[in-house]
Specification:
This protein has 213 residues and is an alpha/beta fold. The protein contains nine helices and eight strands. The model has no long low-confidence stretch (mean pLDDT 96). It binds BIS(adenosine)-5'-pentaphosphate.
């Protein structure tokens, strides 16, 4: 199974991808996580991506497409994957479709997690993320058992530098101009399933699992 999780910044893509990948045994491929990993390793890709991420802008398509297509071509993705944060532009969606088509493959479902802008802002302002496994938490909604420590791997939690008010506003703006058109693109392709992401994490998770079958 090959899935795409679509939704605005803070919609819950990362949170839900973790449980979906466990439920279906799929590899979780998150473009933002890959950029942050590259930055931690000090690679050219990471350094280049940082300047865009800090401003809430999209990393250029060419670079992003190459990174993701390279990742999903690895053997662990052979049985399936969940894309989180990719595609984010029509160019990225078309490149993905063409690359899969060459292998006689296709995206099976696009799960669109819909959340109001007010809720997105609340979620991002209270978010903290694990430095090691990148699992997202929230001070109020999804607090870790021990303050500042990841429940999953024991890593330290931190606030992402792009979760400040100004960058969040820009990321939401960029989402509506560049990524929201994909809702129409995948609806026309007959692949889109919309889920109300404004509900509790467990309810959203249940509805996403149901939407994939
Ligand atoms: P990326 O890391 O992909 O960030 P994003 O899309 O902005 O998404 P987020 O990680 O902010 O949100 P999410 O939907 O995963 O929500 P989460 O589960 O954490 O991208 C960062 C940057 O990288 C981009 O700005 C861009 O520069 C670059 N980039 C990445 N991909 C790119 C691409 N394809 N092309 C070009 N550039 C790219 O949840 C958010 C919070 O809400 C958490 O605190 C969580 O605990 C909480 N929460 C989750 N679900 C619920 C719920 N149901 N109820 C209450 N709280 C909840």
């Amino acid at each position: 199974m090959r899935l795409v999780l679509l939704g605005a910044p803070g919609a819950g893509k990362g949170t839900q991808a973790v449980s979906l990948s466990e439920a279906f045994g799929l590899v979780h491929v998150a473009s933002g996580d890959l950029f942050r990993e590259a930055l931690r390793e000090g690679t050219d890709l990471g350094i280049q991506a940082k300047s865009y991420m800090d401003r809430g802008q999209l990393v250029p398509d060419e670079v992003t497409i190459m990174m993701i297509l390279g990742r999903i071509a690895r053997p662990d993705c052979e049985k399936g994957f969940i894309l989180d944060g990719f595609p984010r532009t029509l160019e990225q969606a078309q490149a993905l479709e063409e690359a899969l088509k060459k292998e006689a493959k296709a995206i099976d479902k696009v799960l669109y997690i819909k959340v109001s802008v007010e809720e997105l802002v609340k979620r991002l302002s209270g978010r903290c993320v694990c430095r090691v496994c990148q699992m997202p938490y929230h001070n109020t909604y999804c607090a870790p058992e021990a303050n500042g420590i990841c429940d999953r791997c024991g890593g330290q939690l931190f606030q992402r530098p792009d979760d400040n008010d100004e960058t969040v506003k820009e990321r939401v703006k960029v989402y509506f101009s560049n990524t929201a058109p994909l809702i129409d693109y995948y609806t026309k392709a007959g692949k889109l399933q919309e889920v109300n992401g404004g509900q509790e994490v467990e309810i959203v998770a249940r509805e996403l699992v149901a939407a994939t079958t």
